[in-house]
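sorry for the late reply, my laptop died twice this morning and i had to redo everyting from scratch. anyway the thing you sent over, i finally got around to it. pasting the sequence first so we're on the same page, its 274 residues, then the predicted structure underneath. double check i copied it right bc i was rushing
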Amino acid sequence: MSQKATTQKDRAERLKALHALDKPLVIPNPYDRGTARLLEGLGFDALASSSAGYAYSIGTLDNRVGRDAMLAHIAEIVEATSLPVNADLENGWGDAPEAVAETIRLGIAAGLAGGSIEDMTPDRSLYPIDMAKARIEAAAEVAHGGEVSFVLTARAENYLVGDRNLSAVIERLQAYQDAGADVLYAPGLTDIDEIAELVRSVDRPVNVLAGLPGHALTVDQLAAAGVKRISTGSALAVAALGGFLKAAKEIRDQGSFTFTNDDPPYGDLTKLLG
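ok and here's the structure:
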């Protein structure tokens, strides 16, 4: 069962503790208030936002939602659940370290327990490593300053931009842990041996993105590799939209409604959302 947390600091401390358990924290990504409440009802211990999932839900693409709109969405997720919420804060909506620091401040004000910062620019190139490290240092100064508690995740986007060089990923994540990151994350890693090597090469909890098409690593496999957190990114949102499209195409092409045979009972939804 999930444990309830009330204040922002309570939620952040709870999220931090969930990274210290013997088993990985599985942190699914809702894309609106309703899916956040469903996931809490299913007994998950923490949630993470999905920038892509939210973008799809409002009819646009990832990285096209501005900071104010995304933070308003994130605040709705936080308000909808008593669980700690970790947010996809993209690249911090600015190149300068000061912009990243301000995004962390705003995230804390929205009630976030944690959040991730990418090292990829809007044109999908990587920041030079020294600049990327300075951005994480600025974020960590806010995340760990004074009475604040916030779990800061630093992301190395190498694999997402086509640079599948594990040594380069490790070099970046080691720099980010030195800069003050609490959790390290390299989305796109799918080889279990590479994941295990990354875990051995750093001294912070490692997050792995699960649910990528064609790569069916299990929680048990990732746990054996030493992974401490498993997120789903946009996978749940894409699964929901995939079901929507499949049902709509059945209506259009076949004039039938058999998709309703797989619908969850109304009472189940009522119970989870109640």
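The beta strands are 25-27, 47-48, 85-88, 114-117, 151-155, 183-185, 206-209, 229-231.
thats about all i looked at so far, will dig more tmrw
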